[in-house]
Write a structure and sequence with these properties.
mainly alpha; flat
Length: about 500
């Protein structure tokens, strides 16, 4: 067993004189016994008494010192005890506080557990219900699949009968068309040629342009002067995206029948497709001489004037259409485009809005409305309009461009570039798409790229050159010490505004 430092110290000290009260009394008694019956010299008696007295007084001093030391030790112990009690009280308070918080957390956890158990039970019940529903749905699907499989042979038989009936219907249709044609056709056209032409029209109505073209060609071979067969053949070629061949066909029709209004109108449209706008305008005028209020010719004439840069005359042409045909959405749309090019933004906005009031699904009217809203400084509205247009027609390039510009104006640059990329994907070589892209890049302070797209936009569009001089989205380019001189070199020196 180990020994402590205080125990080992006492054992090293050796024997000591015991002056305790009890021991002192014993000594005195022993002395008195020895003195009793004996006569001691008085000096001896005095010495003994003095010795006892000194011992007693020494003991009193020792006791006093001991008491004082003990008192001080007690006071120190009391101070330590007070400090300890304070610490214990503080610790007790902290413990009670922690215990209270712990109890609250336990209570909350218990509550959550009850909720979780309830939810789990409900979820389990719902899962069971859904499992039963899924099983029932699967059973129904299997039943229906079995039924479908059982009727497939019958459907195949029906399909075969339908094919035979289709052929019969075509034959009957041809016969009916022959009867109708006999009431109006030039009697000089051989019936056999008419029959082939009507067969071609039946195929054309079914969307089979290749086959229709064969029958029209047979009719023309039988009777080369058959104007209607030439016209139908030209329309068929147009639908097959062969505008040059279609133009030759319309020319032949007009040669055979100079007053064929539809041939003049379609010839004008085809010339516009081939970017021969002056000739296109003349052809539309010729059609309107024959039939002044023909809506297709009126619309086409306005488009031809706009493409020639004669915006005022184009607007007058469209105003005539709106007066004659106020419910024509295309006429309002064309007016909106003209107002936009003339920078008459509020009038442009109203025209586009009127167009999709007439036709709510008019995606292009909504997409160009977004363009105008951006130019009017209303990017939040432009964003909503562009998104609606894209939902209606994801292939409309200017809707994606307008979406990109509105996003750039709102500081959402990554999304803006993605939208602009989509517009470029749809039409890789479009001046309007380049123009909007240059504005987006300028707002992003990407000067070199912005100048590149601006240069591409300006190649064939003088209107954009005029717009660029005052467009606020290009202020970064105009005012930049490095890009500014390059910008003005592109748009024209000495024309700062």
């Amino acid at each position: 067993m180990g020994v402590s430092e205080s125990d080992s110290g006492d054992k090293r000290q050796g024997p000591t004189l015991d002056l305790s009260d009890k021991n002192l009394e014993a000594v005195a008694g022993e002395v008195l016994k020895k003195l009793k019956g004996r006569l001691w010299p008085w000096p001896t008696v005095v010495a003994v008494v003095l010795l006892l007295l000194l011992g007693y007084l020494g003991q009193i001093g020792v006791k006093a010192v001991a008491r004082e030391v003990l008192r001080k030790d007690v006071e120190k112990a009391q101070e330590k005890l007070t400090i300890l009690r304070t610490k214990v009280d503080d610790l007790k308070k902290e413990s009670e506080k922690s215990l209270g918080e712990l109890r609250a957390k336990v209570s909350e956890a218990a509550k959550d557990l009850r909720i979780l158990r309830t939810d789990s039970q409900r979820t389990s019940e719902e899962s069971s219900v859904r499992e039963r529903e899924a099983s029932e749905a699967l059973r129904k699907i299997e039943d229906r699949t079995s039924k479908v499989e059982s009727v497939i042979p019958e459907l195949e038989s029906v399909a075969e009968r339908a094919n035979r009936m289709t052929d019969e219907i075509f034959a009957q249709l041809e016969e009916l068309m022959v009867v109708a044609q006999e009431l109006t056709v030039d009697r000089t056209v051989p019936p056999h040629a008419v029959k082939h032409a009507l067969r071609g029209s039946a195929r054309f109505a079914a969307g089979n342009y290749e086959r229709a073209l064969v029958f029209y060609q047979r009719a023309i071979e039988i009777h080369p002067g058959y104007a209607q067969a030439h016209y139908n053949r030209a329309v068929c070629l147009w639908r097959m995206n062969r505008p040059e061949d279609a133009l030759a066909g319309y020319d032949k029709v007009i040669q055979l029948d100079p007053e064929h209004v539809e041939a003049h109108t379609n010839r004008a449209i085809t010339l516009g497709k081939l970017e021969r706008h002056e000739e296109s305008l003349e052809a539309f005028d010729k059609a309107l001489e024959l039939e002044p209020n023909q809506v297709e010719a009126l619309l086409g004439r306005g488009v031809a004037l706009a493409r020639l840069g004669r915006l005022g005359e184009a607007l007058e042409a469209d105003d005539v259409i709106v007066e004659l045909y106020p419910g024509n959405a295309l006429a309002h749309y064309n007016r909106g485009g003209l107002f936009l090019r003339m920078n008459r933004l509020e009038e442009s906005l109203k025209a586009f809005e009127r167009a999709f009031e007439i036709d709510p699904d008019y995606a292009k009217a909504r997409g160009l409305r977004a363009w105008v809203l951006n130019d009017l400084g209303r990017p939040e509205e432009a964003l909503a309009a562009a998104e609606r247009a894209i939902k209606l027609d994801p292939s409309f390039n200017y809707a994606h461009s307008s979406l990109g510009l509105s996003l750039a104006k709102l500081g959402r640059y990554e999304e803006a570039l993605a939208a602009s990329d989509k517009a470029l994907e749809i039409t890789p070589e479009d001046d309007g798409v380049f123009w909007i892209r240059s504005r987006i890049l300028s707002l992003m302070k990407q000067g070199a790229d912005a100048l590149d797209y601006l240069a591409r936009a300006l190649e064939d569009d003088e209107e954009i050159r005029a717009w660029a001089k005052t467009e606020s989205d290009l202020s970064f380019l105009r005012d930049h010490p490095e890009y500014g001189p390059l910008f003005w070199k592109l748009v024209g020196k000495g024309e700062k505004h």
